[in-house]
Amino acid sequence: MFGSIQATVFEIASIWGVLFIAFMGLGYALMLRAQIMRQDKGTPAMQEVWGAIRTGADAYLGRQLKTILPLIFILTGVLFFSVYVIPPSEEALLRFSSYSPDMVRLIVGLGRAIAFIMGACFSLMVGQFGMRMAVEGNVRVASASRRSFAEALKIAYRTGTITGMLTDGLGLLGGSIIFIIFGLASPDVLLGFGFGGTLLALFMRVGGGIYTKAADVGADLVGKVEKNIPEDDPRNAAVVADLVGDNVGDCAGMAADIFESYEVTIVSGLILGLALVTITGQIKWIIFPLLVRGIGVLSSIIGTYLVKGKKGNERGDALASINRGFYASAAISLVAFMFLAHFYMHEWRAFFSVGVGILLAIVIDEITKYFTHTAHAPVKEIAGSSKTGSATLILRGLSIGFESSAWQFIVIALTILAAILLYWGQPVVFVLYGVAMTGIGMLTLTGNNVAMDSFGPIVDNANGIGEMTHMDKDARQIMADLDAVGNTTKAITKGVAIGSAVIAAVSLFGSFLADVTKVQLQMGVAENLRLLVTGIRVSEPIVFVGLLIGGAIPCLFSSLTINSVAKAASLIVEEVRRQFRIPGLMEGKVKPDYKKAVDICTVSAQKELVGLALIAVVSPLLMGMLLGVEALGGFLAGVILAGQLLAVFMATAGGAWDNAKKTIEDGLYGGKGSEAHKASIVGDTVGDPLKDTSGPALNPMIKVINLVSLLAAPIIIHYKRTDLGVIAAMVICILLIGGAILYSKNGRLSFKKAKADSAW
After folding, report:
1. Number of domains, the chain
2. What are the CA-CA distances from residue 195 to residues 116, 121, 122, 677, 707 (Å)?
3. What was the pLDDT predicted at 499?
4. Is 4 part of any domain?
């Protein structure tokens, strides 16, 4: 496994212990599932609404799978044949020294392709199984609310924890198995694993985001603004699609998003750890990240199980209980890391690196909470702006979003600075390893974070079921209180997801430098010209061009995703308006056709997936072939910088607008139906695609681009841009990107026609 480097008994036992912990996390998820499934599903009316939500969710997931399978099949072949372009790494030849170089190449190629499929399947499982459990849990939470606040809270949080532990368990399982089989050669194969998870996360994030916001925007604009009816009124044809969208966006999409960050940080940590093994001759640098992850799973199991409600129907009790579980997990992890650093690593820099990551997660939690929670000044100021109309409310929300981006930028910069100070005077690869460990530390509490995120849509759906079935006032109040807490936990986890995406991307950026340098060494490039020595020189004009184009990609991606939501929402608005004109529907004598709205959202979401994924996959290939690997590094820096700024801005502004609306609905400035309320609905509607589609979709997009660059750079460096094959490849890439943009923007004329027909 480790070639000529000797592993201690503790290190060998640790690797197998980490694998056992991965199965323990999965076993905990199955135990919680059994607990949830034993709970009752309430009245026949509640089960009827729940059945419509489940059917819509299943239809979406089935159609999504059919959309993405062809691309997965193609990319599996590409990853397999990629190892035939460059020779096997020295670590691979050493790991499989009893085989010929050609056989080693075949083994690594198969390993990378299988790992890609495994990463994609694991990401799909986290999203799909987690979302299905969220659907199973929502009706049980609604039923439990008739009995007690504590029972409803416990069921909701433990249902969300299932998704969190799947994320932990499967992420650790995949990394451990690959490491056990490939040893020091595992980074080459882990790239496939990370790419598979990241690509599926992009599909699920973008598709789920378009679906949920098309339904939400359409339902709100017609139901709340035009008809002045409640949010989850059963007469609204888009209400079931909206409830389905909460699950496909905030459960399936977010779970897959955090899962791929979880994967990517371990990939970058092991790649950089291998570089340190080469320098120091000690394998502790690649064992340490696995042990940290194993400790994180154990601490999440303990922390999530501590989340229980007390007697009384107080909103603060739920948030306090969730926070208690989170901080308990953090404390357990930190103590364990101290022992690991002292007795195994024999140095404290490793502890401080992962400790800074946990601290970063907590600080980002607090920043996000400050800018989006109803108890703090920013949301109150936005709500106050509603008194002078929707324009001032929107302007105030934009201001809050930009300010939040600035503070999160500073916090992340200080985090990276901490890694620099910890490894001051060491080669740059130590600093990059420290950044990777920060990312691993930040995602130590992934089980808790995903549980907090899934909690939001579960209680939101439960509240919707309660409103649609006219449950009693006390039960509705319990669900409303839990829903308000869920809005906060969703906003917090979005902040963590964005922050972890940036740290993961910076870690991959370091892996990019290390991998290109390794290939340059094999090619005989002089040491002073290798990328890890020269760095990415922004002073070089061609590198600066790459930086500018990289900054443009998140803007383009955001434009296309917002446009996709606008197009789909237009169709939903027309459909809901049409159904409201059906005689007897407003009087409650006729039921709306929920399936029609669900179908519109499903088809619209899937239509956009492939085009947007092609932009993320193909753009770094084009940049590398056209401008070279150093300019590709500048391109990656531009993507990370602009992506972080836009993602935080959109997520924060959207969340703040949403909660400002909720404070007004609770009675502030005239409450529901007032002019202030109508202005806040406009702000919330503008913010919906920002916080739940475009902002979160940038997370996997950033990492897809980084992973494609990491996979492609060692190949690109072998060829000249004047080669006929490279020129042909560049032309194909340009056509694919241009076609993807046109495909994504297509449909405007048909919507104009739809409006004209409606007016007629």
Report:
1. 1
2. 6, 12, 12, 44, 6
3. 79
4. no
Reported pTM:
0.86
- Kindly tell me if the per-residue pLDDT of 749 is higher than 70: no
Dump the DSSP string for 626-664.
HH-HHHHHHHHHHHHHHHHHHHHHHHHHHHHHHHHHHHH
| CA-to-CA separations, 206 to 202, 389, 643, in angstroms, rounded | 6, 31, 15
Write out pLDDT tens, residues 207-259. Answer: 888 888 888 888 877 887 788 787 778 888 888 888 888 777 777 777 777 88
Whole-number Å distance between alpha carbons of 623 and 712: 11
Residue 3, in any domain of the structure: no
Torsion of CA 182, 186, 188, 191, to 10 degrees: 130
Residue 2 lies in a domain: no
**139-143, 489-493, 700-704, range with greatest mean pLDDT:** 139-143
Find the domain containing 221 and state its range: 9-759
Decide: 510 and 384 in contact? Cβ < 8 Å: no
3-class state of residue 234 by DSSP:
coil
DSSP letter string, 382-447? HHHHGGG-HHHHHHHHHHHHHHHHHHHHHHHHHHHHHHHHHTTTS-HHHHHHHHHHHHHHHTTTHH
Here the tokens at position 51 are 């059945």
Residue 555 inside a domain? The answer is yes
pLDDT averaged over every residue in the chain: 85
Are the C-beta atoms of 260 and 123 separated by less than 8 Å? Answer: yes
